[in-house]
């Protein structure tokens, strides 16, 4: 065979009946095998001449191959359905285990709650200030009491010092008087 003959042989198409217009290769081959019951050899090329120039070609699958494909597709669909059911069940379990969050509060409730919190905080601060003022007054009273006691002690010390000075002066005068009287006595004796 030369190249031209080989080209003609490869591109020649038989003249079968037009079976299905605008069909995919898979559908076309299945129509041929299943619906029409053609006994084609696997891998044989057949054409749908209704599609236009060149037509649609497909390889013919055996009935066994088609059944195997259908079984595989059916198994995949069953697995997908099972997965979806598992996901839905998990979602319902999750919603049962975790109740939905409470609805968000209304603006007035938020404002009232904030004002209540602020009022409560102000009351706490006022109480603390009163406690501090009481503590300061008590400490002031104790400090004032200490200062008064210190002043009294200082006054007592000052009074005692004055009394001691008076007594010392009296003693000096007494000593001077004694000395003078001794001196007079001594002079008399002489």
TrEMBL record:
Coiled-coil stretches noted in the UniProt entry, renumbered to this chain: 115-170
Keyword field contains Coiled coil: yes
Organism whose genome encodes this protein: Paraglomus brasilianum
Positions of region (Disordered): 1-22
Protein name per the record: 1182_t:CDS:1
Keywords of this entry: Coiled coil
Positions with biased composition (Basic and acidic residues): 7-22
